[in-house]
Amino acid sequence: QDAKEIKQRILALFAVFGIVIFFWFSFHQNGLTLTMFAKDYTLLKIGSMEISAEIFQSVNPFIVVFLTPVVMWIFGALAKRGKEPSTPKKIGIGMGIAALAYVVMTIASLSLPNYSVIENAPLADAARVTPWVLFSVYFILTVAELFISPLGLSFVSKVAPAHLQGLMQGCWLGATAVGNAALVLGAVMYETISLATTWSVFAIVCFISMGLMLCMVKWL
User: Which residues contact 215 (CB under 8 A, 6 or more apart)?
Assistant: First the structure.
């Protein structure tokens, strides 16, 4: 590999790192604002059974275990037909899937009051949303994760110059860390602006990231 090719590879990787920051910023709201929403706005009952606000987070590992073989089978079937999307395109698709999760949240929150209204006066059960909203959102976000997390690591391994493999893997984890550090912005929005606007921000961020990634697919 000459210096020009190495430079191109590094630029491509940092372009992907920049995109995935926004994915982790949105995805890991599952442990912050989405859990707050579960506690504040969700009916924590399924039939006569009481559930906890944290139970929704169990959807992610469950779906990862059971859906990974299905997703891999679909990619394999597409590969046999010569129609499998490239890794950058899969990452772009994953960002679009993540955006859909927040579209669902936006629609579900349109009639709900701001957090400042219910902070000291919890919502009555009749005014809360069904728990199936969050179950579906966590499911969608997990599907998005399967399009981005393992495939992104694979992309780094394929593209990174041999002598920079460890550094580039570290940069991928660094991008994840930056996305996690930005989580606090979600909590600030949740407590200060309308819920629908909060979720719309995440949806817009993911849609923009999807558009940027798909525009870069040929170059990548």
Answer: none
CA distance 91 to 20: 9
Question: pLDDT tens track of the chain, all 220 residues?
Answer: 678 888 888 888 898 899 899 999 999 999 899 999 999 999 999 888 899 888 888 888 888 888 888 888 988 898 888 888 888 888 899 999 999 999 999 999 999 999 989 988 889 988 999 999 999 999 999 999 998 887 788 888 888 888 888 898 999 999 999 999 999 999 999 999 999 999 999 999 999 999 999 998 888 7
Give Cβ neighbours of residue 193 (< 8 Å, ≥ 6 apart). 114
Choose among 121, 122, 110: nearest CA to 39: 122
127: which residues sit within 8 A by CB, 6+ positions away? 112
Q: How many CB atoms lie within 10 A of CB 138?
A: 21
Helices (H), the chain: 3-27, 33-41, 59-80, 87-109, 115-118, 131-159, 165-181, 183-192, 195-216
Give the pair of three-digit tokens for residue 127: 């005014």
Residue 166, token pair as written in the block: 């460890």
Query: From the CA atom positions of the chain, what is the Rg in Å?
Result: 19
* CB 220, CB 15: distance < 8 Å: yes
Q: How far is CA 35 from CA 13, 67, 142, 163, 172, in A?
A: 32, 23, 15, 42, 26
